[in-house]
Amino acid sequence: MAIRIKLPKFIKESVCAIFVALVILMLSACSSKNYDPNIITNGELLYVENCLSCHGVNLQGQQNWLNALDEDGHRLAPPLNGSGHTWHHPPEMLSEIIKYGLKSIDSKYEGKMVGNENLTDEEILSILEYIKSVWPENLKKEYETNHE
Ligand code: HEC
Hints:
Layout: H1 9-31, H2 37-50, H3 52-55, H4 91-100, H5 121-133, H6 137-147
Helix pairs in contact: 2-5, 4-5
The site of heme C has 23 residues, from helix 3 and helix 4.
């Protein structure tokens, strides 16, 4: 004969609520595994120090970047906020461009995107995580699906 323990309703409800909360917690921990807040904060600091002067405080790029050139006749810095074409490049290529400059993919390149060889690979990864963190959610998802 089965023993049925009758629990008060409020206990059943709170057990249920705790269970739901745990599931939500686990799901959010999974989906944000690539967006560790410490990595992003560190990436943001490095961005401010090394990239902001050209790519802008909101990663918006330089004004009129598509059409205008700077005083040396070089192209202007594009946005990194998801509206440019950064997200078409795989992460390995972006790290390469950031570390060794555009020269790494175009040996004749003479423009302003020079390398940042003073940064470690980890620092570059954290800058990339910061850059990705400002992209719209759908773009982030698409990028991760394409480059996982
Ligand atoms: C002196 C200005 C300057 C600084 C500083 C600078 N960039 Fe750039 N960056 C550019 C320019 C200009 C381009 C466009 C290259 C071209 O077409 O000549 C570019 C291109 C890029 C690209 C390729 C863009 C794309 O959409 O494919 C990435 C990624 C990038 N920069 C990231 C960074 C990061 C990260 C930093 C800091 C570590 C940084 N840049 C610092 C000027 C700069």
